[in-house]
Write a structure and sequence with these properties.
Helix content: 40-55%
Strand content: 5-15%
Structural class: alpha/beta
Strand order of the largest sheet: 1-2-3-5-4-6-7-8-9-10
Length: 511
């Protein structure tokens, strides 16, 4: 039962968080810049909540019996620099409130990362996973950021193009193969430019950080309580830099270093996923009964990847388990140690001629439904990531990086390099987020996992140091993000959220 609960939470996060790997390289870094958006703006009023159990049930039918769900919409300026021109986006919110709530502190606003993931979905999942003590003291509020899901969504990629980009070899060795992949990314970028034009710049992280302050005002909180995962830590860091005095409690789990450029970010992820795969291999060697692909998983998966390139297995629906889908399945499973058995079983089935498990892992990551239809996760991921990205490398440079990184990180280096191609073809102007100290902010808890593949642990101290008020909380575990999965981390975060008790500096929680 425990594995199912964690798997559900991880599924909500995994689809959001792995998006950094394949679509836009979203982690652009920049220094603080002068801005005519520096003055805080006032939200368009308080949230008008209405019951919406139907929305929660669209996320999962396993809803807690003692939690009520309400939804609201907040209007925000499309461009905070020109907030008076009357052009607005609708930001969709959901609120989960437990029946036994008492001594309410305020709202705890959550973001799952991506960028491009639904905070509405995350709030529904967390309503049955966060500790009861936290739920009793806070309304749990999730929001779809601008461009995501129910919030003026960006949708410019066809299902066919997404099938093509996920199914295509993400690390082509021939120049012809690389050129074809670059052309596919160019076509997808052009489809967004044709539909949205210069307005794509409006989906930047800084704009969303200012929306977050409008949400704070709309839910009636004098100061913000926030829980952000992965890219959500970058969003949180941007908010903290802009609105430090308006923070009550901030937990940033799965830290992103906002000062790194897209190339360094992608290379760091390549190293992180190689390390995670090595840990998976060690697990296989020590758990032979649960790892049917044998004591050398790298050899087994290399063989599957080679077959996916030359003679892919065909599934029941006619889809072929190409190298692209296989790579996606591997990445998806490495986000959590709990899905390592699924990864081993999927590749054991694949070598027996059944790709169902591979497709299940890949589709969970890609938010691809059984009907072949995708959510807008990757459309929004590209729009947000490329709006932030000021360092858009050209295809020739990316080709060189691909070849270098393949040697250093055989499974993941090439695909992390080619993922940079989307922003290389983006036409809308960038709007980089500011970085720097969270002046006026209280202590901010920054959680890092030593075995995190997607936001490697070394970024934790960098984010905490940049903020100036960051306090590092370490989990010596596997997978992406830590709260609320282990008693030590959960206790430390709960005490901070409820009583503002900051974990002692250097706190380390064992696996």
């Amino acid at each position: 039962m425990r594995r199912r609960r964690i798997a559900d939470h991880r599924r909500a996060l995994r689809a959001a968080l792995v998006a950094l790997l394949v679509a836009a390289a979203a982690l652009a870094g920049c220094t603080s810049k002068p801005s005519n958006r520096d003055a805080p703006r006032t939200a368009a009023g308080t949230a008008s909540w209405k019951p919406c159990m139907d929305v929660a049930r669209l996320v999962t039918r396993s809803l807690p019996a003692n939690v009520a769900f309400d939804c609201a919409t907040v209007k925000v300026p499309q461009d905070w620099a020109h907030a008076d021109n009357g052009r607005t986006f609708d930001i969709a919110l959901i609120r989960a409130r437990i029946a036994s709530q008492r001594n309410r502190i305020g709202s705890l606003v959550v973001n799952p990362g991506g960028p491009g993931a639904s905070g509405i979905s995350l709030a529904v999942y967390l309503s049955r996973q966060l500790p009861v003590d936290v739920l009793r003291r806070f309304d749990l509020v999730g929001f779809d950021p601008r461009g995501v899901g129910r919030s003026s969504e960006v949708k410019c990629f066809s299902d066919a193009d997404l099938d093509a980009v996920f199914g295509t070899d993400p690390d082509p060795t021939s120049q012809a193969g690389y050129d074809a992949l670059a052309a596919l990314y160019k076509r997808m970028a052009q489809s967004c430019a044709t539909k949205y034009g210069d307005s794509l710049t409006l989906f930047s992280t800084e704009q969303t950080a200012r929306d977050l302050d409008a949400i704070r005002q709309a839910v009636g909180d004098r100061k913000l309580n926030y829980l952000g995962y992965s890219y959500g830590t970058l969003l949180g860091a941007t908010y903290a830099h802009l609105f430090g005095p308006k923070i009550r409690s901030f937990v940033l789990d799965g830290a992103v270093d906002p000062t790194q450029d897209p190339i360094n970010a992608s290379q760091t992820q390549a190293a992180g996923f190689e390390h995670a795969f090595d840990n998976f291999s060690d697990w296989c060697k020590n758990n032979a009964s649960r790892c049917p692909i044998g004591p050398d998983p790298r050899a087994a998966i290399d063989a599957a990847l080679a077959q996916g390139r030359t003679s892919p297995v065909t599934g029941a629906d006619g889809r072929k388990a190409t190298r692209g889908w296989i790579s996606l399945a591997i990445v998806s499973a490495l986000y959590s140690e709990d899905t390592w058995p699924d990864l081993a079983a999927a590749f054991d089935d694949l070598r027996r001629g059944d790709p169902h498990g591979v497709f299940a892992l890949a589709d969970s990551y890609a938010e691809r439904g059984s009907n072949g239809h995708y959510s807008n996760l990757f459309d929004a991921n590209a729009a947000i990531g490329c709006a932030d990205d000021t360092d858009r490398s050209d295809a020739a440079r990316i080709r060189n990086l691909q070849q270098q990184w393949r040697k250093a990180y055989p499974l993941f280096g090439g695909m992390l390099a080619t993922g940079l191609l989307m922003c290389s073809e983006w036409r809308a102007a960038p709007d980089p987020y500011p970085t720097g100290k969270a002046n006026g902010a209280p202590p901010i808890v920054v959680v890092g996992t030593t075995g995190d593949p997607a936001t490697p642990y070394e970024q934790t101290a960098r984010l905490a140091g940049m903020l100036g008020t960051g306090v590092v909380l370490t989990w010596q575990g596997e997978g992406h993000t830590a709260y609320p999965q282990t008693t030590c981390v959960t206790s430390a975060v709960d005490n901070y959220l409820i009583d503002l008790k900051v974990p002692p500096a250097g706190t380390v929680c064992p696996a």
